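Lab meeting prep.
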Amino acid sequence: MIAEQYLPVLMLIGLALGLGGMFTLLAIMLGPKRPTDVKRMPFESGMPTEGSGFRRYHVRFYLVAMIFLIFDVEVIFLYPWAVQFRNLGLFGFGELMVFLAVLVLGLVYAWKKGALEWE
């Protein structure tokens, strides 16, 4: 009974994987193979690499990424609330204000700690 419901989805996934694999194999078998020293060199943005490819990044990159994710998740939670705004009434509005207040407090904290300052 449940398997019948998922059968079209499984068939679509199988078709997608099969076509993807087939096109990849065709590209490997039929594609041109003219390797040169220049083509084998690693590059970054069209420029030759300098030093090793591994270097440490400042923690601010990760802080900015985390702040972005937090506000991205906020938008995900705001959408269903906006759809059901009329049904939720004043209680739903109050809950959203508490949610936004917590997020704003987190933003103010990050701002005071200097996480948003770029040097």
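Slide two material, second protein:
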Amino acid sequence: MPSATASGPAAVLSRIFGSAVTASHSGLMVSDAAALKSGKMDQLVRLAVFGDEAEREMARWAIWEIGQAVGVRAASIHDLYMARGRGECHGFTTPAINVRGMSYDTARSIFRTAIKLKAGAFLLEIARSEIVYTEQRPAEYVAVMLAAALREGFRGPVFIQGDHFQVNAKKYAVDPSLEVSGVKALATEAIAAGFYNIDIDTSTLVDLKHATLAEQQRLNYEVGVDITRHVRGLEPAGVTISLGGEIGEVGTENSTVPELQAFMSGYNNTLASQAPGMIGLSKISVQSGTSHGGVVLADGSIADVKLDFNTLKELGEVARKDFGLSGAVQHGASTLTDGAFNQFPKCETAEIHLATGFQNMLYDGMPPALRDEIYAWLSANAADERKPKDSDEQFFYKTRKKALGPFKRKLWDLAENTRASLGRAFDAKFEFLFTQLGVAGTAATVGRFVRAPEQHRPAPSGSSVPAATAAAHDDADAGE
């Protein structure tokens, strides 16, 4: 593996890409975009994930700057969602995909599908908890997602989202300032990396002991406004970060229109009084019958979900009509039966979140020996999470996400035939979902409303490559 510290970014890029990608005092230049769709990108992204500190910094900077040059840029979906709130686009449901394990290969499949179906309205996301247990900090996650897009030849905005940037209710009760500061610190890190879409989850603070809905939702919207103001103060020039709120914790009672009205009225009034003119939310997450990861039965199967599409439809209509939002967002959807997904665009659900189903596919498709090794690790390292009545199937299903970080390198290093087999399975699943959710053909809609401004970053500290003010590239690869 080449050393960035010994040779510098320019020499390492030259060693990987030859003259196709070069770095100099003029900035980073892409003279042959075809090289980006080769194993050379695989080498660069491995440096971004598994290199030493200097190599990681160099590779992440290079991936970002290559994206700026050819038009693969982190972007906010805010303007598309606001257009939907105005009724200027409709008929699709944006999938927000939590990429947890084997992330580069999984993301490559997503971008292959997007190219095939001319899809543009999709998000790649990772939650506060997932960042920890998958061992993917925001800078790494952004680099991997952009590298996957470049590797497949995708062009256009890349929507990377912080999912469930959540306030922990128990920790908040002990020290509110410390807990909220933790969410703000994560938002600061994520925005600097290129997360221009963030779901603020303060729904954990809803307090049902109060008599009125406004009082029940008060902490939810007041802390939500506090985090909103923090995020808005960190926005890069030309970017309005898409922010989501949440009114009901997923897995609890279904949300109601009065709850939505109480939260949004309180949120908007509080924001207007504290920061007049500041832009608020673009969407609202609700509960309509799902749970994160599904409900696993003793034999390891997933219980059927009674999803209330009428609730989703009604809440979405109120969100658009009364508050100008894109609509309602559904979490915990990946383990639904296949027949459910075409219902989301029919009831104009703005966005659904998909995670565990893809993790299940990864575990089903990995070599049995590796799965056994992971389960042995869980038995030793997650034993305290096992409930007395849990079967082995229930225990491993609920805890195996915790192994994705410790086994990250082994998942990246799976044999080529295994990765190819999983890739085909992912391709089929993503094509099904994108088709059912109506996002095929949305690249044109995204292009109509979304602009991803060019943003250059200074080269890693200590390198001989200065910050670029403009990147040269083939005209044919200019950003759309």
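Talking points for slide two:
The chain has a mean pLDDT of 91.
The radius of gyration is 22 Å.
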